[in-house]
Amino acid sequence: MLHFDSHVHTYYSPCAHGVDKASRPVASPERYLQRAGEIGLRALVFTDHFIEDPALPGVVLFYKGSGEAILGNLRLELDRLPAVQGCDVFVGCETETMSTEWVGVGEAMAKELDFVLVPTTHYHLPGVPRPASYAPRDVARHMLVMLEAVARKPWLDSVAHPFAEIESLIGDLRAIYEAMDKARLRDVLGLAARNGVALEVNASCLTSPELPNYATVFREIVSLAKSLGVRFTFGSDAHDYANLGMTLEAETWITSSGLSPGDFLSPQMLRAKRD
Ligand SMILES: [Zn+2]
Ligand SMILES: [Zn+2]
């Protein structure tokens, strides 16, 4: 259905250091490119965890070591690998929202990247802004505050896995959605639409046993977002080459949510936005 993947972690991400039985890394650029050729992808965007200046005080521990060197090394590796016939390869990132005023990639750096994906709900990472409590009302309010902070910055391309976090941590997502101020949600989504900030459809989150209610709740949000003119990006959030690309479950969910390929921004379109 969608012949691209805009959320892929290589071993330059601290959470993608897995190896197979033969001790070969499962998240090497080389294996991803091979896989992309096998499944017929037409574009893929590498989005390793990246912060423009990880040495700044206040940068969360997880991102120490996630600076420009990883982009340089990834690009070097990609230059040395044979091209995949028919597949465009891009280098973007998944950055972090350190506060409502501070996202890990600024406007100038965003132009040097092909895609900037921004999470707002990495509550499991120590140091990332969290709700006052995990009462549904507090989580709902905080999710909207952080989403608005990203929607306000037009140089950011897409919100990574919006509203997703492990439910054993944040509680039942249906209760959070129930407690959410829907007028405020509408305003924030409208702002995202006006500023060209997309929402990601994240294949991993749709089927994760850790997010049992995500697929149901996100479907409602997506249909409201679409009606307000929000565009979407798609990513597998693969940390292993075997998970690259579209799944049947994601395809079924997308179709049943009323989205069609025309609602999605391809990596080529995101790249073109910069020129
Ligand atoms: Zn993430
Ligand atoms: Zn990710």
Descriptors for this entry?
11 helices, 275 residues, alpha/beta, globular, binds zinc ion, single chain, TIM Barrel
What low-confidence regions span 5 or more consecutive residues with pLDDT below 50? none
- What small ligands are held by the chains? zinc ion
CATH topology, what is it called? TIM Barrel
> What would CATH call the architecture?
Alpha-Beta Barrel
Total domains: 1
Q: SS-based structural class? A: alpha/beta
CATH class categorisation:
Alpha Beta
Rg, Å, rounded: 18 Å
- Strand line-up of the largest beta sheet: 1-2-3-4-5-6-7
- Looking at CATH, the homologous superfamily is Metal-dependent hydrolases
* Shape designation: globular
Run of helices and strands: EHEHEHEHEHHHEHHEHH
Quaternary structure type? single chain
Largest sheet: 7 strands, parallel
How far the N terminus sits from the C terminus, by CA atoms, comes to 27 Å
User: What's the number of helices?
Assistant: 11
| Overall pLDDT confidence | 97
Number of E-type strands: 7
* Beta-strand percentage range: 5-15%
In words, what does this structure look like?
With 275 residues, the chain is of the alpha/beta class. The protein has one domain: Metal-dependent hydrolases (TIM Barrel). Helix content is 38%, strand content 13%. It has eleven helices and seven strands. It is globular and about 50 Å long. The structure holds zinc ion (ZN) (2 copies). The site of one zinc ion (ZN) has 5 residues, from loops.
